[in-house]
Amino acid sequence: MSATGSGYDLSVTTFSPDGRVFQVEYAAKAIEKSGTAIGIRCVDGVVLGVEKAIVSKMILSTSNKRIHTVGIYNGVAISGFAADARQIVNRAREEASSFKSEFDSVIPGKVLANRLSGYVHLHTLYWYYRPFGCAVLLGNYSPKGSPELYQVDPSGVCHSYYAAVIGKNKEAAKSELEKIDFTKVTCKEAVREIARIIYKLHDESKDKEFTLEMTWACDDTKRKHRKVPADILEEAEKYAKDLRAKDEQDSDDDDDDDDDPPPAK
Question: What's the whole-model pTM score?
Answer without folding.
Answer: 0.90
